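Please produce the structure of this protein holding manganese (II) ion.
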Amino acid sequence: MIDLHCHSSFSDGEHSPALLSDMALNNQVKWLALTDHDTVEGLALLQQASCHKDLNIVKGIELSVRWKKHDIHIIGLNIDPMDSHLKEIIATQNERRIARAAQIADCLVNCGIKDALKKALELAGHQRIGRPHFGQLLINEGKAADMKAAFKRYLGRGKAAYVETDWILLDEAVLGIIKAKGQAVIAHPLKYSLTRTKLHELIVAFKSAGGVAMEVVSGETTVTDMNELAGLCGRFELLASTGSDYHGQNSRIALGKQRPLPVNCRPIWDTWDNQSRPAS
Ligand code: AMP
Ligand code: MN
Ligand code: MN
Ligand code: MN
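Below is the modeled complex.
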């Protein structure tokens, strides 16, 4: 099994990198990329925990990106986490994440939640603060029944506590990944509510920036969606990637348990060194 997209407690995932490594082993995952939101902090621990196991670690990241007023997620695979330009990007993203948290908290104070920033920061602990922490706060305060409802009513695009964030631009993210010797991948392309025309525009912009792949399977992607995405990979000459986007026990798809890639697309690992790639 191959899983090229998951999260640890260094971003909004529930589990430590060490626990993810054990889970990967239990689930027969042989190739695992940790792709935390805007951070590479968990990678060293994951490598440490996996070094005596039959598990290959792919160093990854999931960058939040602004493209034409849309928030898009771009994954970097096989990145050098020590790259200085990538470190600068991460620092900038983190500043924006923190500034956004204060703005989201202001909106939630207006919705009747006292001390929203303090409480959300407590929930985040050492994690990168993100909307799921505010989702948990809304649940704790009895304002939302579950995470889905918190996004639908408060945190999703255009909702009461949605804040437009000045994330890095698509080109900057792709270039940053390339400079760090990685490959850029569009994450979960059907999750942005883009029209098909806009999605095609995104793919063209991504490719001209130097992006090479797109997730054809992500979490619970349906067969219909997977086949459409495989078709788009063929049409736009993109490699295909796959991942569970596992965040923890509330994720519907367990680590490495996403459906297999369709046979008509070329997996991204086809381009990896012979010694360091899965058999396909
Ligand atoms: P952020 O990076 O802080 O903007 O938060 C985005 C994260 O929130 C995503 O990576 C998901 O983990 C989570 N998320 C986004 N939309 C939803 C949703 N509708 N329901 C539950 N979780 C969501
Ligand atoms: Mn997430
Ligand atoms: Mn994502
Ligand atoms: Mn993700």
